[in-house]
Amino acid sequence: MLKSHVLKAFAIAALFTTALAGPVDAASDKSAFRMIVGEPRYMDPNLAADFAIYVNAQLFQPLARTDKDGNLVLLQAKSIELAPDGRTWKIALNPDYKWSNGQPVTAADWVYSWKRILDPKTGSETASFLSDVENAMDYNKGTLTDAEKVGIKATGEYTFEVVTALPAPQFRAKLALPYLTPVPKAVVEEFGEKWVAPEHMLSNGPYKLVSRVNDQSIVMEANPHYGGAKPAIPRIEMTIASGDQCTAQLRAYEADEIDFTTCVPSQDIARIRGDADLGKQLDPFALAATEWVQFDMRQAPWSDKRVRHALALVIDRQAIVTAVSDGTNRIATTIVPESIPGSNTADALKGSIEGAKKLLAEAGFPDGKGFPQFTISTTSTRERPLIAQLLQQMWSDNLGIQANINVLEANAFRAWVQTRKTEKYDIMINGWWSDYADPANWFGDLVTADPRQNHFTNEAFAEIVKKADAETDPAKRAELYRQANKILEEEQPMTALQNPTDLWMVKPDVQGLAHEGVLNMYHIGEAAFK
Amino acid sequence: MSVLDLAPPRDAGMVTRLWRFIRHNPALSLALAFLLLVLALALFSSFLPHDAYRQNVLVRNSGPSLKYWLGTDALGRDMVARLAVGARVSLTVAVASTIIAVAIGVLVGTIAAYAGGFIDNAIMRFVDSMYAFPDTLFAILFAALIKGQLGGDVSGWMAPLAEAYRLSGGLLGVLLTLGLTGWVTTSRLVRAQVLSLKHAEYVLACRLAGASHWFIIRKHLLPNTLPVILIAVTFVVPNAILLEAGLSFIGVGIDPPTPSWGTMIASGAQSIQSYPHLLVFPALAIGLTLLALNVVGDALRDLLDPAVSASRGAAT
Which pLDDT score is estimated for A460? Predict the structure, then answer.
């Protein structure tokens, strides 16, 4: 009898303790911010050019940020001034900011880091962000071997200067790029490539790297010597997932295994939006980015403007946006997003389906007769194969022309695009995400430099862009880019489809996680648990 | 009922025997009925109320309803129609690649067994090394190679092949891949059968009478390997369907918008949380078809294998 009473008492006590321990456990769990990321190709901030910059941004900090109006908000810099010559940027560092071992971050570290980015031996993809700097590209290509001639030099322990080859107003925005951070000179020189190992790495941002297991996990803890506001969240635990990041993130998020997702898979958006709880946790951010369909401009029939116009005019963008994003993406009528100076939706191509049919007939293909069968190539990631199938049907229904679809795995597609420099193709689906909110990033880095192999050549366009690049008066510069925009839309070498929207989901107990900059960075150091 | 009635009539034809066999085997009847249904869907998919390619984004991802019996996919296309066209793709792949695979297998197996000696050894060691490869991996490599070779711009003698590949939406690549990887087991079975037949007295007699090798192979060896070949077919076919699904699932198989069960499962798997019907129906289609094929294969073996028939006869 007594025994059973004791047992009962124990059972009740056990129930109480578990009931009490439950929330206590959950709260203590909240010392770490949990998320899922892809395996970063590089942890070295001088090399990281892909989504690794989002991981790196917790560790390494640039000189400043750009606010919504394009003004610099200083971080590691105490002041940034442009000399009257329009070319010399004088940068003074804030000595409060220290490496995670307490050593000061000096001008020597910054100069070393930026020259290391340009060093051809580093082979960094981020070198293009410093292309405005005097002699930078010659040094990067190896035609100039003397690093001293590059226009970046320290002028004191905490001051340095950057000289651009020409007056380059867009360089102000580049100074705030998350790609351009310092690295600890002494550590990099001592350990070489191994300096990014957790036992050696020093960082100047809110967090320091504690551990990293390839393809498994990255753990960060607050940097005790960080010069800015100390992070409220002391620890970040990142789990590495391979394959489709969005799906992996959403599943873990719904299972309450992570606190934050950076995207929602296309096929789940409608359900999340319709869910009373999950819908509230959605945090959309309209990106200055465009996805489009582009033609091989060297090839017939695509070299015929009437054909390009005909294909562009019959695209139902609303159907695309609805099918791939449940309407969360925005319709794009111009390649350069509206938020970028120089772009204007008034320049968008106008016409009707009837007009499109007439244009195609004028080009020699009435009702699509005689039009060669062509191939739409696309990567398998994101919702691109869906877009390809929608386009295929729109073109077949309205113009009577038939397309095949060639879906390539993401890495294979990237390599395939590279080889299109010399090889021919018909049509591909592609996109561009703003690195900095400046027209040079679109008219120059995208259209003129042509990394997407569109092969658009137009003398008037090239002339105007060249003029605009060196124009220091913002109003005149925007006006020049506007002229370039008109040519681009009239020529229609690519046809804009949609402006993507990033859909974050944030757990209700997290506050202060904000979207920063055109790259939509997140800074966990500025967030807190409720 | 008299005892006489139970005894099978001596002159019962093949059809009657088969019909009786099916009637006394409910699992087999069900399997055959299901396969007939799949076949009918594949053949007459154009008579279904909806078109497999017609998109309607307004009704995308809708669940099963009276209008769309198994719901619609991410672009609002009818799942029944897509499953039916997918069945056509799967069955085409299965039949065509099985013909290629069995033809190669029979040829290789017969040559190896009939020639014997060094040739046999060389061929069978090659077959062994093919066996050592996991067939899925081999098929992936092969399919990726074909897609790489024929998928781009091709000139010269391969140009017509590339054109056929393009027009078939990747189907040709899958066919070739499965045909060229699926023959290994068949060759072994056929070789074993031919080896045992080669020394049969009637073959010896035939040879002594001056018959050519080709005559002996054609008249005596091949007809007698037919049961073995049929049995080989029963496991090459399901394997081909499964491999096609696997290849399409990882993206080296059929290109969109042509539906295949593999591509439907691949896109359905992405939607499993929000729209499970997109995964469940194609998965059921492939699972049930494979089950039915296996049941039929088992029954066929029972019917053709004298040892099994005899033991069955003894037991009853």
Answer: 94
Q: Where are the beta strands (DSSP E) in A27-107?
A: 32-37, 64-66, 72-74, 77-82, 88-93
Q: Which two tokens stand for residue B2?
A: 């008299």
Kindly report the CATH number assigned to the domain that includes residue A274. 3.40.190.10
Please give the residue that has the higher pLDDT: either B61 or A58. Answer: A58
Q: Are residues A58 and A178 in the same domain?
A: yes
Same domain? A395 vs A303: yes
Q: Does residue A32 fall inside a structural domain?
A: no
A7, A13, A15, A18: CA torsion to nearest 10:
-130
- Between A324-328, A352-356, A442-446, B24-28, the lowest mean confidence (pLDDT) is in B24-28
Interface predicted TM-score (ipTM) of this complex, two decimals: 0.72
d(CA B274, nearest CA chain A) in Å: 6
Domain count for chain A, please give it.
3
Chain-chain contact of A423 with B153 (C-beta, under 8 angstroms): yes
What CATH code is carried by the domain that includes residue A162? 3.90.76.10
A13 burial (CB, 10 Å; 0-12 / 13-18 / 19+) is exposed
For residue A156, what are the domain limits? Answer: 1-8+41-193
Domain co-membership, A128 together with A246:
no
pLDDT at B261: 87
Which of A265, A323, A409 is the closest to B75 by Cβ? A323
Between residues 363 and 392 of chain A, which touch chain B (CB distance below 8 Å)? 373, 375, 380, 385-386, 388-390, 392
> End-to-end alpha-carbon separation of chain B, Å?
17
CB atoms < 10 A from the CB of A190, how many? 11
Question: In this predicted model, which residue has the larger pLDDT, A94 or B173?
Answer: A94
Nearest by CB to A247, from B61, B152, B270: name it.
B270
Statement to judge: residues A485 and A522 lie in one domain: no
Model confidence at B307, pLDDT cuts 50, 70, 90, reads: low
The overall average pLDDT reported for chain B is 80
State the pLDDT confidence band at A402, using cuts at 50, 70 and 90.
Answer: very high
pLDDT in tens, B91-115: 888 888 888 888 888 888 888 888 8
| pLDDT tens digits, one per residue of B114-125 | 887 888 888 889
Please report the residues numbered 418 through 457 in chain A whose beta carbons come closer than 8 angstroms to any beta carbon of chain B.
423-424
Both A337 and A483 in a single domain? Answer: yes
Quickly count: other Cβ atoms within 10 Å of residue B171's Cβ: 21
Cβ–Cβ gap A375/B257 under 8 Å: no
Determine phi and psi for B200, rounding to 5 degrees. Answer: -65, 150
Mean pLDDT of A377-399: 91
Report the distance separating Cα A462 and Cα A467, nearest Å. 9
Q: Note the pLDDT of residue B11.
A: 53
**B273 vs A: CB within 8 A:** yes
